[in-house]
Amino acid sequence: MAAHLIVLLLFSVLKGVHSITTVSKVSVEAGKSISIPCLYESQYKNHVKYLCEGYYWTYCRYAVKTNKPDPSGKYLISDDKKQNIFTVTINKLTVKNTYYWCAVEIDNGPDHGQYFQLSVISGTPSLYVDHQRITGYIEESITIRCHHSNSGEMKWCRLGRNCVTGSSGSTDGTTVTAHMRDPNVFTVTMSGLRTKDSGWYWCAKGDIQIPVYLTVTEKPITTTTTAATTPTTATGSSTTHTVAGSGTITTVEENKEHRASFDPKILIIPLSVLTLIVIVMLFIWFIMRHKQNKAESSATAMGGDEVTYSEVRPKKKRSPKGDRKAAEVTYSTLAEMF
User: Fold this and answer.
1) pLDDT, greater one: 99 or 268
2) Distance between CA atoms of residues 146 and 186, nearest Å
3) What is the SS3 assignment for 177-205?
4) If 0-12 CB within 10 Å is exposed, 13-18 middle and 19+ buried, where does residue 149 land?
5) Is the pLDDT of residue 6 over 60?
6) What is the pLDDT of residue 270?
7) What pLDDT, on the 0 to 100 scale, is given for residue 11?
8) How far apart are CA 80 and CA 25, in angstroms?
């Protein structure tokens, strides 16, 4: 194995070890993905870059090139010409995905390549981070936790720049502090971030590294507003909100038309209840009215025309025969009283 490493080092020297810089060995979990940064010299900005797979440089085969994407999607490649870094991503890792080279095509000459190795295992990697891509904000701090299970010196390095090996240091003027207070965790904190701190870094524990890409950007401004309860309609308006005490003014363009929305379904229950109440009240009124009419009709029938009778007196008369008495009845006039 030592002889193979010596051969690889010799090939690296012959193939431009100083032209490309990358990690040397990365521990990864089978089935996952990994992104590997490859830093190249500015003179190769417009050259074709590629990933070559194989233990020996002479016999490695193309995996993906910047001018020829991999149709299977197994390998991805992108070139950041501002930072002179091309990044290769290997998806759905297997134990066969082990030996690779970051390479640059050289016109009319031998290509330049730099070797790196993947240690693909089925369990937890011996060195890993929570997220391979992280975001920090200008003038603030960010903390990276590097989980490890192997022995060796712990480092925090920037690709192509210096490394911080102790409890404190700096990378390109940015303050870095580190500690190992938690078991099997190397914690790195970068303070006073600047835009130029964006780029590739790596944690290193012994001979294993794990790349981390840091993006430094402006922190988004959030404002809290109280929405009015009265629905309004506005078109093409521009509103400016000032946050008291902060000196920050946030302008919000409201170019979309806002209309008050109303759901007619919410009236179904109230209208149903109201209709039922009206029906019940009409029914009660009808029953009461019917009873009242019936009572009035009965009273009228019983009252009718009132008749007043005068006193009736019998009057005695003699019968023509003189021996018999007949009773004569005298009737008074019947008068109808209204």
Assistant:
1) 99
2) 5
3) EEECCCCCEEEEEEECCCHHHCEEEEEEE
4) middle
5) no
6) 82
7) 43
8) 23
Separation CA 85–CA 38 (nearest Å):
5
User: What are the tens digits of pLDDT across the range 127-162?
Assistant: 999 999 999 999 999 999 999 998 888 999 999 999
Structure tokens at 132: 């391979």
Decide: 34 and 91 in contact? Cβ < 8 Å.
Answer: no
Are the C-beta atoms of residues 33 and 131 closer than 8 Å to each other?
A: no
Structure-token pair, residue 288: 């009461």
Are 127 and 208 in contact by the 8 Å Cβ rule? The answer is yes
d(CA 19, CA 3): 24
Query: Closest Cα partner for 23 from 129, 152, 127, 160?
Result: 160
Chain position carrying tokens 């000032």: 242
DSSP state of 63: E
**pLDDT, tens only, 50-77:** 999 999 999 999 999 999 999 999 999 9
Spell out the SS3 assignment of 237-258: EEEEEEECCCCEEEEEEECCCE
Number of other CB atoms surrounding residue 121 within 10 Å: 14
d(CA 66, CA 267): 63
DSSP reduced 3-state for 1: coil
Q: pTM score > 0.70 for this model?
A: no
Which helix H or strand E contains 217, and what residues bound it?
Answer: strand 208-217
Query: Cα–Cα distance between 100 and 38 in angstroms, integer?
Result: 12
Query: Distance between CA atoms of 188 and 155, rounded to whole angstroms?
Result: 9
Q: Which two tokens stand for residue 13?
A: 């020297």
Question: Alpha-carbon distance 250 to 225, whole Å?
Answer: 11
Calculate the alpha carbon distances from 148 to 185, 186, 268 in Å. 6, 8, 64
Residue 297 φ then ψ, to 5°: -65, -40
